[in-house]
Input
Amino acid sequence: MTVESHAAQGTKGREDSNAFVAFDTVGVSGDAPLLSVRNLSVHYPIKRGFVVQREVARVRAVDGISFDIRAGETLGLVGESGSGKTTAAKAVIQLKKPDSGSIMFEGRELVGLSASAMRPIRRKMGMVFQDPYGSLNPRMRAGDIVGEPLKVHGLAESGDDYRSQVAALLSTVGLSPGMAERYPNEFSGGQRQRLGVARAIAAKPSLLILDEAVSALDVSIQAQILNLLQDLQEQYNLAYLFIAHDLSVVRHISDRVAVMYLGRIVETADSEDLYDRPLHPYTQALLSAIPTPNPIHERSRDRIILKGDLPSPMAPPSGCHFHTRCPIAADVCSLTDPELRRLAPNQAAACLLASGYETAVR
Ligand SMILES: Nc1ncnc2c1ncn2[C@@H]1O[C@H](COP(=O)(O)OP(=O)(O)OP(=O)(O)O)[C@@H](O)[C@H]1O
Ligand code: SF4
Ligand SMILES: [Mg+2]
Output
């Protein structure tokens, strides 16, 4: 299926996909995306009842999102806790079945594939989690943890080949091959995350999903892991879906950024444009919260404080879902649900009042 016909298929559900498709396939690159997600929705039914369980509510964790990732590029996915980032990632990797939408990966539709058809495809998608303590089996030696995908997917020709691949993977992520015999509790937090990365790249994936992979680390260790990820990306042309709740973390690694709010993408742009000229009030608020290293700028920094907490995705506000917290909301905002509109060459935002800067920069 061509990208165009795939995009044309993805017109059911929320209208914002059309705007996004137009935004996302114009001007970025002519190559077909490695991953193409359209109108993805993932809901969690809330059930009650002792004998017969009835659905009493529905958490709209992911509510019609669309994005593309090309080979070798990084899309940063950012939003507050509960905005749906992990659920979106789980749906991409098919750990959670979507309720609707399309996920094209390396030219194949993943939605509806059986577990056995999905197995060889999952090899091409690695995942690194936030918690290197929880995601590594404490009873397995480092070498076995890193080598597990080689065994699962039958990628080693012999015992010697297996051991040399494990040693090479450990060196690739900056660990000594001699550490293969150690257990996870004998590693520091940063080293454990290196192990997680080595395991994720063992089966030579084309896409890595990094879910808050550096969020729990000290700033200096964070920088080391980000540098490692950038080196690996260059070496293996890896694509990253890089998830974080903090815009400052994704800044240097992302080519493009998508900002999520209550299960939806409210702004998406090339990284530089998003940080220079955020168009959605939510993105503006998130950016204003980032401290600057310059004390003079820091003193004059205008922080936008958002009112209240993230509303429940079980009962999102009417109209624009952000209107209950938006500092510039107008009457119309509680009545009309804004589409994601392209407002600048490589930037789209879902805000009724936002305007672009295309003409202003000419
Ligand atoms: N298994 C589940 N059953 C019901 N609701 C769930 C389930 N998993 C997640 N949710 C809800 O779905 C919404 C999105 O959760 P998700 O974990 O995807 O958010 P997130 O953006 O990854 O948050 P965080 O930054 O805290 O990791 C939240 O309201 C969450 O409470
Ligand atoms: S549509 Fe209204 S409430 Fe929503 S982000 Fe824009 S100004 Fe704020
Ligand atoms: Mg999460």
